[in-house]
Amino acid sequence: MRFFGQMLTRREGHRLEAWLNEVRGSGLRALRVFTEGLIRGQDAVRAGLSLPWSSGPVEGNVNRIKMLKRQMYGRAGFVLLRKRVLLA
Fold first, then answer.
1. In angstroms, rounded to a whole number, what is the distance separating the alpha carbons of residues 48 and 44?
2. Alpha helices, DSSP H only, in 1-88?
3. Deepest of 13, 31, 39, 67, by most Cβ within 10 A of its Cβ?
4. Ramachandran region of residue 11, left (φ > 0), alpha (ψ -120 to 50) or beta?
5. Under a CB-based contact definition with an 8 Å cutoff, are residues 13 and 47 in contact?
6. Are 60 and 48 in contact (CB under 8 A)?
7. How many CB atoms lie within 10 A of CB 13?
8. What is the Cα–Cα distance from 46 to 25, expressed in whole angstroms?
9. Could you give the CA distance from residue 79 to residue 88 in angstroms, rounded to a whole number?
10. CB atoms within 10 A of CB 86
């Protein structure tokens, strides 16, 4: 099952269908359940495995803003929260 890890690191999205077929034939129920979710968004999964672009920086910024919002919950209004987000 290292095949999936190799697809991730080498950006080999074209091999996704072969891996899905291999998992369907295996006796690993948990892995088959995982692949059912992948099949629903197969085009997006293949693009994620193939393309060099990442939403990592955006997700990191969203995570930072959510952390600041949790820290300030119940302590301040929108004006102070906005200043903290812009200055942090």
1. 6
2. 2-10, 16-25, 29-40, 42-50, 56-72, 78-87
3. 13
4. left
5. yes
6. no
7. 18
8. 20
9. 14
10. 7
Q: What is the pLDDT of residues 7-35, one digit of tens each?
A: 888 998 999 999 998 888 888 889 889 99
Minimal CA–CA distance to 82: which of 72, 29, 5, 48? 72
The per-residue pLDDT for range 28-52, each reduced to its tens digit, is 889 889 999 899 999 999 998 999 8
Angle formed by the axes of helices 29-40 and 16-25, nearest 10°: 140
CA distance 11 to 26: 24
- Rounded to whole angstroms, the Cα distance separating 18 from 16 reads 5
Q: Note if the pTM is more than 0.90.
A: no
